[in-house]
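Milestone 3.1: sequence recovery, worked example.
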């Protein structure tokens, strides 16, 4: 058969292709980026090409129903001040974290997604109950993750509540944005990720912070505050300037001098494998974060950055679409399903902005792989598994993996990008 190509940018054809070997040294597909085209074909292993895979209907509705069943069951063991973070290795139940934990907003956001997809008032009530406890974090100036904590709950509620943004939510979001703004340094042109605002020796920023900028963008839009908008805009551009390597991969942590903005160090990957390795979830944050930034700014270069990060992922993942927790980790290391779940969701948005249907096909292939091979099973309150680097066992998962997986399934079904 003739090779089939997914054109990722404009209409340039693939010029060449070759064999890609997986981390397990098994030839699975021909996948090479040449210039700005992506071409892939199946080989003797019998693995279907990604466009062929998407010819089969994806069981998205069935998987969403599974979310409804599992989350409803989990709620029976929870109270609204429980903030699920990861599943226990033995019995698959969610473990809680405190209100100021960085993932504490995701479960409320997941409930808002279910309220939106079902239109059921009982899910809206549950979402509001689990969101309410996040209000105290609106005054938290000690972390950049106020974006995940507050916008991931109140913000998602404003976007997805079947009855519109609930009363009081907008004010809480705007307050949280001003709290995050206190971590902004105009000399560096970014918001500080780690450390005290008063630290004048180093200014640490991680790739994850790109995602928290939606808090600033959204608050700027509804309040008309240009200062918040420009803070977020500068941070996005500086992420592109300092984080993207020539091969399209990303650094995890960059450390600046807060007094003059000079880069002190960018050779650190705290959540990855080694000093200059490529942390898989960080790569996904880049794809999603730059795409989200385009949503609020309309600046085309942000799409280019997202595609650059995406191309690295596509060139370095095997046909399962699920990488190890770090692209440079040795064979046999823990896998990370959060990375492809985040990227799949971003791809549906990227497809809309670039008018490239091939992105939807790749996203569908990712979702099919996650559904077919990487679910946690009946024993677990979560849907996905295989986040062992974060929670010590391949049977466990982290809440953000399920959050973005559900978002991707909803987008597959045509949910609008909000």
């Amino acid at each position: 058969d003739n090779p089939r190509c997914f054109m990722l940018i404009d209409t340039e054809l693939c010029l060449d292709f070759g064999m890609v070997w997986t981390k397990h040294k098994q030839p699975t597909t021909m996948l090479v980026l040449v210039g700005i085209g992506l071409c892939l074909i199946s080989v003797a292993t019998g693995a279907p090409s990604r466009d062929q895979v998407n010819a089969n209907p994806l069981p998205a509705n069935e998987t969403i129903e599974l979310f409804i069943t599992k989350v409803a069951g989990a709620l029976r063991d929870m109270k609204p001040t429980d903030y699920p973070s990861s599943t226990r290795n033995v019995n698959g139940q969610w473990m809680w974290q405190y209100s100021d934990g960085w993932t504490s907003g995701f479960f409320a956001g997941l409930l808002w997604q279910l309220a939106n997809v079902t239109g059921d008032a009982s899910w809206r009530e549950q979402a509001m109950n689990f969101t309410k406890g996040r209000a105290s974090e609106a005054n938290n100036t000690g972390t950049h993750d106020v974006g995940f904590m507050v916008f991931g709950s109140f913000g998602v509620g404003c976007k997805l509540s079947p009855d519109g943004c609930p009363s009081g939510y907008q004010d809480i979001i705007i307050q949280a944005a001003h709290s995050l703004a206190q971590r902004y340094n105009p000399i560096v042109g970014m918001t500080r990720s780690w450390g005290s605002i008063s630290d004048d020796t180093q200014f640490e920023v991680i790739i994850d912070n790109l995602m928290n900028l939606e808090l600033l963008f959204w608050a700027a839009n509804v309040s008309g505050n240009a200062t918040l908008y420009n803070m977020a805009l500068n941070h996005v551009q500086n992420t592109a300037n300092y984080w993207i390597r020539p091969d399209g991969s990303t650094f995890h942590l960059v450390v600046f001098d807060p007094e003059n903005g000079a880069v002190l160090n960018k050779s650190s990957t705290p959540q990855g494998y080694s000093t200059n390795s490529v942390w898989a979830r960080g790569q996904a944050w880049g794809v999603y974060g730059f795409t989200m930034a385009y949503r609020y700014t309309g600046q085309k270069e942000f799409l280019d950055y997202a595609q650059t990060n995406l191309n690295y992922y596509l060139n370095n993942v095997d046909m399962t679409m699920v990488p190890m927790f770090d692209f440079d980790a040795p064979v046999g290391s823990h896998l990370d399903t959060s990375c492809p779940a985040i990227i799949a969701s971003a791809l549906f948005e990227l497809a809309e902005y670039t008018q490239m249907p091939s992105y939807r096909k790749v996203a569908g292939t990712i979702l099919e792989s996650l559904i077919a091979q990487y679910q946690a099973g009946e024993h677990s309150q979560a849907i996905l598994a295989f986040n062992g680097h974060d929670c010590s066992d391949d049977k466990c998962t982290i809440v953000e993996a399920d959050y973005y997986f559900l978002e991707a399934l909803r987008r597959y079904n045509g949910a609008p990008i909000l």
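The first strand starts at residue 4 and ends at 6. Confidence is low (pLDDT under 50) at residues 1-55.
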